[in-house]
Amino acid sequence: MTATLGADAARRIALAAQGFTDARPAGEVTRRHLGRVLDRVRLIQLDSVNVAVRAHYMPLFSRLGPYPVALVDDAAWAHSARRPRLLAEYWAHEASLLPVADWPLFRWRMRDYEKKLGERYAKLLKDSPGLFDDVLAAVKDLGPIGAGPLETELGLAGRRAGGGWWHRSSVKHACEYLFAVGELTTGARRGFQRLYDLPERVLPPEVQRAPEPSTEDAIRELTLRAATAHGIATEPDLRDYYRIRPPELSKQAVADLVESGVLEKVTVRGWAQPAYRHVEARQPRRVHGRALLCPFDPLIWERARTERVFGFRYRIEIYVPEPKRVYGYYVFPFLLDGELVARVDLKTDRQAGALRVRGAFAEPTAHAPRVAAELAAELQVMAEWLGLDRVVADERGSLAPALRAVLG
Questions:
Q1: CA angle (263, 265, 270) in 5-degree steps
Q2: Gap between the Cα atoms of 33 and 21, Å rounded
Q3: Which of 4, 55, 7 has its CA nearest to residue 305?
Q4: Other CB atoms closer than 10 Å to residue 135's CB: what's the count?
Q5: Tens of pLDDT along 304-355?
Q6: Per-residue b or e along 280-302, where b marks 16 or more CB atoms closer than 10 Å to that residue's CB
Q7: Which residue, 267, 272, 384, 402, shows the most beta carbons closer than 10 Å to its own?
Q8: pLDDT for the residue 126
Q9: How far is CA 148 from CA 91, 95, 152, 193, in A?
Q10: pLDDT below 50 — which residues of the chain?
Q11: Contact predicate 224/257, CB 8 Å
């Protein structure tokens, strides 16, 4: 018999799975705490937008509070015998940081990209024979290195691939292709610029030597990781976590995990589709605490799931013309005691030393005075973490008057 859960119970399961029922550290945040978050979320999405804070830094702050961002930098882009690299970059849920041990689980995707991208890059190979081999040889000699310096080394500075492709250079295209098929990876970053290197100089030997799992086994393992990260989810939710395609692969993986007893099929009241609960997922009685969530936080990055779980319709408006934006350019949902209660359009103003709230909006059912007080406190913590002196709130939004009154 299929168990039935209420929507509130499903929401609490989802929050616990993502680490929002764990207490924030009372003292120094260490690599052990980083590992705890990674055990929950499994991957961290990268994004180039830097209007408030880089997306890959924010999920840890949301769960741990203030921490030294060098924890992420060292885990992803540095290695030593004492502090080995923990994270590698690849296309997981978009461009992402993922545990180095998970690298073999994406070899099927690398092979898939090799087939699918071959036609796209055929013209580049025809126009620039030997380019891919030259790029690999140069990276071997010079890496970690960016595409720009590679162009200079190969005598191709200013040379462009025809037919669009965002007008990237042929060398950049070659680098991105080699990254997609696993022949290059990110050795380091300078600012947000990817510096390419060979996987054998970045990944531990045991990861490099690990046998390649079958496509079916890899997708089943990735679906299991998605189920752990979600706690409870529909099959499309699980599929989206690692962007698994085609859907038939995900559906078979879910069926296998149900048959093996790892997932339990359940009904959630108000959900149109069947749900699957990880058998070890916790269902806390209550959820306390607060957190600001960046648009690319794994709790909310799948917008249909966010609306289903939280009753919170959320769209990122970066690409919407300013006069047509409803809430703002880079809006952070505010989580309070297990519910999404407000939206905050944030910008880091380094010149003024301020975290600027360009708009603040309370959800219709939220208690605005308490939300404003808790939000102001969390914004102050975030500002201090970012090395800013103060929080400044503009007048836009239904929550702005109460927030400005608290901030003073």
A1: 130
A2: 14
A3: 7
A4: 29
A5: 999 999 999 999 999 999 999 999 999 999 999 999 999 999 999 999 999 9
A6: ebeeeeebebbbbbbbbbbbbbb
A7: 402
A8: 80
A9: 22, 20, 7, 10
A10: 160-167
A11: yes
Q: DSSP 3-state assignment of 204?
A: coil
CA distance 384 to 396: 23
Query: What whole-number distance in Å separates Cα of residue 258 and Cα of residue 253?
Result: 9
C-alpha to C-alpha distance for 340 and 364, rounded to whole angstroms: 11
User: Please, where are the H alpha helices in 242-292?
Assistant: 247-259
Measured in whole angstroms, how far is the alpha carbon of residue 189 from the centre of its chain? 17
Measured from the Cβ of residue 355, the count of other Cβ atoms closer than 10 Å reads 25
Q: Which residues contact 358 (CB under 8 A, 6 or more apart)?
A: 328, 329, 345, 346, 347, 394, 396
Kindly tell me the burial class for residue 93, based on how many C-beta atoms sit within 10 Å of its own C-beta (0-12, 13-18, 19 or more): buried
Burial class (CB in 10 A: 0-12, 13-18, 19+), 263: buried
Residue 27 token pair: 């003292």
Nearest of 292, 316, 270 to residue 382 by alpha carbon: 292
Q: Look at residue 165 in the predicted model and tell me its pLDDT.
A: 39
C-alpha closest to that of 132 among 105, 93, 94, 172: 172
220 sits in which H/E element: helix 215-230
**Distance (Å, whole) CA 133 – CA 138:** 9
Strands 94-99 and 193-197: unpaired
Residue 162: predicted pLDDT: 45
Structure tokens belonging to residue 108: 């099927």
Q: What is the 3-state secondary structure (H, E, C) of 86-140?
A: CEEEEEECEEEEEEHHHHHHHHHHHHHHHHHHHHHCHHHHHHCCCHHHHHHHHHH
Query: Which tokens hold the place of 259?
Result: 């048959």
Residue 320 vs residues 323, 325, 366: alpha-carbon distances, Å: 8, 6, 27
How many Å apart are CA 399 and CA 66, to the nearest integer? 25
SS (H, E, C) 330-361: CEEEEEECCEEEEEEEEEEECCCCEEEEEEEE
- Each residue's pLDDT tens digit, 283-311: 999 999 999 999 999 999 999 999 999 99
The answer for residues whose C-beta is within 8 angstroms of residue 313's C-beta and 6 or more apart is 303, 306, 307
Element (H, E) at 141: helix 131-142
